[in-house]
Amino acid sequence: MIITKELYPFIQAYSLIIGLSVGSFLNVIIYRLPNNKSIVKPRSKCTNCNSQIVWYDNIPILSYLALLGKCRNCKNPISIRYPLIEFICGMITLMLLSIYGPTIEFVAVTLISYMLIAITFIDADYFIIPNEFIIFGFGISIVSHFFNLLPISIVQGVYGALTFGGALFISGALGTIIFKKEALGFGDIKLGLMLGSFLGAELSLLALFFSFIFGGGMSAILLFAREIGDDHMIPFGPSIAAATLLTILTKTIGGGNHIINWYFTTMWDGKYFF
């Protein structure tokens, strides 16, 4: 199917609506899944007064603005996180559309991105990465490889899984030996295995690098602000998710990556070496 310039704005608008709507559904998943509640029923309720939320109060972002951020019935403040997640999903959907175009690969990458957003908030709140996400992600990866939807082969996917998951496993083991306590949860390792199968070895190394940069940076900020103590555990899932999203969003045409290209063309051309 040939997409004309006249049709593209409608595709963008439709993609934005889908992204915002998925963001609204992710709010349900983030709240219910860790608490072993059904993500399908019952309908959403106010967490303060338990009144059922009517459909016109559930329109992404717009309902929050119309209600001035408060429940229609009890006037209890609604967390800003709800419209924030909707906004993030909408913007990431548009960004991915501009990079991948209206393709099947775009659908696969977008689904992975939605999953990473949910993992970020669940791991931050509960220090867990539900197995449902790992199974879902592996399912997308397997289907994508089976139908050749990705710019990497199945073998490269296996190498990626071993690279991402293996590096996290080794890092966790070394951290446990050095600090005499669990340094990395097994959920993070499983997440690395799944994402590596989707990214391949080269992009897995890039995502790994930024995972540790983001994780270390967040730890330093929290320690400096005295929000946590030296013995406080910090979830690593959000760092892995953010690093993977950065890797996905810096893709070049043909399966390359802008950051990797910049590194090899800038750092290795003699400009920064004497």
Helicity, in percent?
55-70%
Output the structural class: mainly alpha
Largest sheet: none
Number of helical runs? Answer: 10
Shape: globular
- Beta-strand fraction estimate: under 5%
How many individual domains?
2
The H-and-E topology, N to C, reads as HHHHHHHHHH
Q: What assembly state would you assign to the polypeptide chains in this entry?
A: single chain
Query: What's the β-strand tally?
Result: 0
The Cα radius of gyration reads 20 Å
Low-pLDDT sequence parts = none
Distance between the ends: 52 Å
Summarize model confidence as the mean pLDDT.
89
Fold topology:
Elements: H1 8-32, H2 62-66, H3 81-100, H4 104-126, H5 131-146, H6 154-179, H7 186-199, H8 201-224, H9 237-249, H10 258-267
Helix pairs in contact: 1-3, 1-4, 3-4, 4-5, 4-9, 5-7, 6-7, 6-8, 7-8, 7-9, 8-9
Task: Describe, in plain words, how this protein is organized in 3D.
The chain folds into 2 domains: 102 residues, no CATH class; 166 residues, no CATH class. The longest helix has 26 residues. The mean pLDDT is 89. By secondary structure, it is an all-alpha fold. It has 10 helices and no strands.
Features:
274 residues; mainly alpha; 2 domains; 10 helices; 64% helix; globular
What's the gist of this structure?
The chain is mainly α and about 270 residues long.
